[in-house]
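Write out this protein's structure.
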Amino acid sequence: MRRLSFYQTRKIIEEFTQSIVFHLAILAYKWGGLVGPPNKKLLKAIRYGWGNNAYSADEQYLEEVLIKGISTKGVILECGTGLTTILLGLICEKTQATLYSLENNYDWSAHVKKYLNRLKLNQVHVQLAPIKKFGEFDWYNFDETAMPSEIDLVVCDGPPASTVGGRYGLMPLLGDRIAIGGIILVDDVNREDERLAIDKWGKNRNFNIEWRGTERRGFAILTCV
């Protein structure tokens, strides 16, 4: 029988601990009534338990996503799946809003769906959408027939930074479905590609912009008018 190295043993223990912390923190959030974002201590526990810290949204962005999610009664579109998918899924069970999530990575999509099934979050529809070239930019190759005709909130944390054009493809491909008064939350606006994408969007759609966060990792709140 092969003996585990110290590193492997520590990794197994840490993953087990994270799993326990995550499920207890999620239960605590549900028991709290889902009336607002978790308090900072609970949100930190949820984020730690989820793992994937290199790619997970930071706590300030998560708070804003949940605040906007709670007030949305219609349709939410999420670009890129992760912890926000789970938390918005919990909220949608209460509000009966519907979450449509696009994910380009098969393994990660399966990972997120596993948690959605485990928590019985039935208001979430995750669509596997590989990255495809659309002329001068790349974006999710999504099934148009499976997408809603009107979107009230967009949580834009994808596609990956390496994608040609960054997050620009959202507006050319789905911008006409975003409702007047609809909100777009764009993460990672400290990156040049994301700021350029927002500038280009503004040439074809009017919106008010509020910048939040820090120089290291900021986000933008766009309200369509």
